[in-house]
C-alpha cells in the first residue's frame, strides 16, 4: 500500500552548511536529490534496488540474472586440493566436430583423389542440410502471439553458435551450415582466401564461447567454385589441416554426419506447432548438384586474379548514357565483356528501372547474372559495381559497427571529401544500408560495397587487435579507403598504382592491416603524414593537451572555419570525458587534406609543450591555427627558397615532407610562429616567478 521506495540519485549538504561540513566532515545532515518527486527517476539506481530486493526476498536466484554464468556460488566452485587450483580459468580444450559436405558427387570423387573424405547431401539423408536463412524462417514463428501483438524473432542472421546444433523441426532432423558458406549474400564469400579466414575465425569463436554440454557440429560446405583456379591449393591445405585435427589452433574431429550427431546438441523447435487449419512453412534444404559423377572438375576455368584489362569496360559511359534505350540494348546483346555489360546495365537501371525487360530477363536479373559470372571469374571491380547496383548488403554489418562502438570509438560512413554520417549508437542493418547507399554513391558506385567490406574488416580487427586503432577516436571509413589508395600509390612508385576496387576482398583486408601497422622507418614524412592523417591518428594524450591549451586561450581556437570556444566548453565538460574529445575531432573535421590535418595535430602538440613550459604566457586573441601554419610555412620558404619561381609558392609538399624535429624541422618553424603569436599578448605576473623584478 505504501508503494516502492524511490532511490535518489545522490545526497547533498545544503549550500549554507557546506563550510561547517568541511570543518567537521559528517556533521551535517544529508538530503536526498529530487529524484522521483518530479516524475523522473534515477533508473539505474532504482533498477539495482529492485533487483537487490528480489534477490533478498528469494524471488529470483543469482542464476536468473546471470545467464552466462559469470558468478559461481561457493558450493559449485571446483574443490581440488592442489594449491591455486581454484584460481584462474581452465584452458578451453574443446574439440569441434566437423562434417565436410561436397555439393556434388563429382566434387566428392575429385577430393577423394587427394585423400579428402566428404559426404554429399544425398548421402546424409534423411538428415537435411539447411542454410542458416532457412533456420531464420523457422524462428520467425518463435514467440508469435497475435493477441499480444508479438511478431516473433526479427529477420537477423543466426551466428555460428546457433548453426553448430542439431535441430528437430516438424519431424525433420536438420543440420545447418554457417552464413559464411552462403553464396546468395555478399560477394566476399566468393573469395576463397576470405572464406578460409572466416572458417578459422568461426572455429576460434566457437571454441571460445561454446558453453553447452554436447559438442558443436560445424558443417563445412565445399563448392565446386571454391576449387577453381590456382586457389585450390589453399583450400586443399585447409582440408588437410582438418584431417590432421588442428585448424587455426582449434582442435577438430572430422567424421560423417551420422556419426557426429550422437554427440551433438539437439534443439527441439517446439514452437513450430502447425494446426490443421494453418499452412506449414516451406523450408528448402541443400540439394546435390546433378552432375555426371565421373565428369572432370575444371579446376583451371578461372584465375585468382583477373588482369586489369579484363576488369576495364570497352565502352565509355559518357558516350552511351545519352544514347537511346534501343541502342543500349543492342550493344548489351552483342557485348561479351562483363565490365561493359555492367556499365550498360547501370544506364538501363537508372533510366528504365529494375523491372525493364532485356534479352536475359529484367535488368535486375541481368545484373545478378553479371554479378555471379564476374564473381566466378574473380573480376572484383565488376563484382563490386554489380553488387552496388543491386544494393547488396553484407551480413553482420550492424554487429561489426557495434564492435567498434563498444571500444569507445565512433564510425563515420561516406566518401572521402564528401559529407559523412557519424554513427555513435548501434543501428539496424536497414538504417545502415540507407546511410551507405545515400552517402557513398556520389563519385563511384563501388564505394558503397567497399565501405561495407571495410566495416566488416575493421569490426573484426578492433575486436582482436584493438591496439592497432590507438589514437583513432573516429573510424572514418571513407578516409581509411583514401589511406589505402595512398598506400597503393606509395608502393607503385613511378608506375601506375593498383586499383583498390580490382583487388580481392582478402587483399583489401591485408592492405588494411598493413596501413594500420606503425609506419615503416624508411618511408618519407609526406607519406607518413598522408597515412596517419587519413587514419585520423593522434598522439597519446592529445585531447588532454588541447584542453590545457583551451584553458590558456580565452577566445578559443579556430581551424578550417570550425571554432572551438573556451566557454562554455570548459565549464560544461571535463578534460577526460569523451564528449570533449569528440568536440576536438569535430573541430578538425573540416580539414580536407590528411597531411595538413597531421600538421595541425603537430601544431597543437607544439603549443601545448610551449604553454606547459611557460606558465606565465597565454593567448590574448582567438588562435587561428591556419594562420599559424601559414606563418611557419612562410619562414620555411625563406630558408628553402625555390628557384622555380613564384608559381608554386602555395605548394606545401616540401613542408609536409620535412622531418618534424631538428634544427630545420617542422616543429621548429611551428614553435617560432607560436611564440611570436604569444609574445604579441600580455604576460601574467606570478609571485613565484624567480625572474620577477621588484
UniProtKB/TrEMBL annotation:
Spans through the membrane: none
All copies of domain GH15-like, residue ranges: 6-479
Single GO BP term: glycogen metabolic process
Pfam families: Glyco_hydro_15, KPBB_C
Residues in Phosphorylase b kinase regulatory subunit alpha/beta C-terminal domain copies: 519-678
The keyword Lipoprotein is assigned to this record: yes
Molecular function as annotated in GO: calmodulin binding; kinase activity
Subcellular location: Cell membrane
Gene Ontology cellular component list: phosphorylase kinase complex; plasma membrane
Region annotation Disordered: where it falls in the sequence: 294-314
Bias (Polar residues) ranges: 300-314
InterPro entries hit by this protein: GH15-like (IPR011613), KPBA/B_C (IPR045583), PHK_A/B_su (IPR008734)
Iron among keywords: no
Function noted in UniProt: Phosphorylase b kinase catalyzes the phosphorylation of serine in certain substrates, including troponin I.
Family: Belongs to the phosphorylase b kinase regulatory chain family.
Protein name: Phosphorylase b kinase regulatory subunit
Source organism (scientific name): Pandion haliaetus
Gene: Phkb
Amino acid at each position: 500500500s505504501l508503494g516502492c521506495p524511490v532511490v535518489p540519485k545522490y545526497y547533498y549538504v545544503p549550500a549554507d552548511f557546506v563550510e561547517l561540513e568541511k570543518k567537521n566532515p559528517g556533521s551535517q545532515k544529508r538530503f536526498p536529490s529530487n529524484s522521483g518527486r518530479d516524475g523522473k527517476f534515477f533508473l539505474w539506481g532504482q533498477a539495482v534496488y529492485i533487483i537487490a530486493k528480489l534477490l533478498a526476498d528469494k524471488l529470483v536466484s543469482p542464476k536468473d540474472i546471470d545467464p552466462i554464468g559469470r558468478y559461481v556460488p561457493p558450493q559449485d566452485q571446483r574443490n581440488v586440493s592442489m594449491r591455486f587450483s581454484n584460481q584462474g580459468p581452465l584452458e578451453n580444450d574443446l574439440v569441434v566436430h566437423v562434417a565436410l559436405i561436397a555439393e556434388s558427387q563429382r566434387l566428392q570423387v575429385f577430393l577423394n583423389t587427394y585423400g579428402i573424405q566428404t559426404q554429399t547431401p544425398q548421402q546424409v539423408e534423411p538428415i537435411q542440410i539447411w542454410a542458416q536463412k532457412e533456420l531464420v524462417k523457422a524462428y520467425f514463428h518463435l514467440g508469435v502471439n497475435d493477441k499480444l501483438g508479438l511478431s516473433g524473432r526479427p529477420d537477423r542472421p543466426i551466428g555460428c553458435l546457433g548453426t553448430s546444433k542439431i535441430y528437430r523441426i516438424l519431424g525433420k532432423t536438420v543440420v545447418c551450415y554457417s552464413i559464411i558458406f552462403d553464396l546468395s549474400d555478399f560477394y566476399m564469400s566468393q573469395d576463397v582466401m576470405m572464406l578460409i579466414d572466416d572458417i578459422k575465425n568461426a572455429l576460434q569463436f566457437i571454441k571460445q564461447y561454446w558453453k553447452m554440454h554436447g559438442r558443436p557440429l560445424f558443417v563445412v560446405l565445399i563448392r565446386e567454385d571454391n576449387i577453381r583456379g590456382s586457389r585450390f591449393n589453399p583450400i586443399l591445405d585447409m582440408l588437410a589441416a582438418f584431417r590432421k585435427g588442428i585448424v587455426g589452433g582449434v582442435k577438430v574431429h572430422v567424421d560423417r554426419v551420422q556419426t557426429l550427431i550422437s554427440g551433438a546438441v539437439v534443439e527441439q523447435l517446439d514452437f513450430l506447432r502447425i494446426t490443421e487449419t494453418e499452412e506449414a512453412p516451406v523450408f528448402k534444404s541443400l540439394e546435390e548438384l546433378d552432375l555426371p559423377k565421373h565428369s572432370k572438375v575444371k579446376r583451371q576455368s578461372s584465375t585468382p586474379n583477373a588482369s586489369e584489362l579484363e576488369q576495364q569496360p570497352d565502352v565509355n559511359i559518357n558516350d552511351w548514357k545519352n544514347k537511346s534505350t534501343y541502342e543500349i540494348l543492342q550493344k548489351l546483346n552483342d557485348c561479351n565483356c562483363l565490365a561493359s555489360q555492367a556499365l550498360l546495365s547501370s544506364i538501363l537501371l537508372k533510366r528504365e528501372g529494375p523491372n525493364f525487360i532485356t534479352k536475359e530477363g529484367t535488368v535486375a536479373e541481368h545484373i545478378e547474372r553479371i554479378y555471379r559470372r564476374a564473381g566466378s571469374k574473380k573480376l572484383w571491380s565488376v563484382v563490386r559495381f554489380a553488387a552496388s547496383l543491386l544494393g547488396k548488403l553484407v551480413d553482420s554489418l550492424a554487429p561489426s559497427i557495434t564492435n567498434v562502438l563498444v571500444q569507445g570509438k565512433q564510425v563515420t560512413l561516406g566518401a572521402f571529401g564528401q559529407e559523412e554520417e557519424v554513427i555513435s549508437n548501434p543501428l539496424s542493418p536497414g538504417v545502415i544500408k540507407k546511410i551507405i547507399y545515400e552517402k557513398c554513391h556520389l563519385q563511384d558506385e563501388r564505394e558503397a560495397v567497399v565501405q561495407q567490406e571495410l566495416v566488416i574488416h575493421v569490426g573484426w580487427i578492433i575486436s582482436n587487435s584493438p591496439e592497432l586503432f590507438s589514437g583513432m577516436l573516429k573510424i572514418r571509413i571513407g578516409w581509411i579507403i583514401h589511406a589505402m589508395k595512398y598506400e597503393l600509390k606509395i608502393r607503385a612508385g613511378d608506375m601506375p598504382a593498383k586499383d583498390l576496387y580490382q583487388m580481392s576482398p582478402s587483399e583489401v583486408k591485408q592492405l588494411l592491416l598493413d596501413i594500420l601497422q606503425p609506419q615503416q622507418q624508411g618511408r618519407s614524412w609526406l607519406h607518413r603524414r598522408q597515412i596517419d592523417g587519413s587514419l585520423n591518428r593522434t598522439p597519446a594524450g592529445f585531447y588532454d593537451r588541447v584542453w590545457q591549451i583551451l584553458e590558456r586561450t580565452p577566445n578559443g581556437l579556430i581551424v578550417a572555419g570550425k571554432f572551438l570556444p573556451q566557454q562554455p566548453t570548459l565549464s560544461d565538460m571535463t578534460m577526460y570525458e569523451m564528449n570533449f574529445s569528440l568536440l576536438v575531432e569535430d573541430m578538425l573535421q573540416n580539414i580536407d587534406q590528411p597531411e595538413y590535418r597531421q600538421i595541425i595535430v603537430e601544431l597543437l602538440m607544439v603549443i601545448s609543450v610551449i604553454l606547459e613550459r611557460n606558465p606565465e604566457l597565454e593567448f590574448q586573441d582567438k588562435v587561428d591555427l591556419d594562420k599559424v601554419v601559414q606563418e611557419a610555412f612562410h619562414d620555411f620558404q625563406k630558408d628553402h627558397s625555390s628557384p622555380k619561381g613564384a608559381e608554386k609558392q602555395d605548394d606545401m609538399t616540401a613542408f609536409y615532407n620535412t622531418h618534424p624535429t631538428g634544427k630545420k624541422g617542422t616543429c621548429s618553424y611551428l614553435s617560432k610562429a607560436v611564440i611570436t603569436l604569444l609574445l604579441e599578448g600580455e604576460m601574467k605576473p606570478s609571485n613565484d616567478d624567480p625572474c620577477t623584478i621588484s
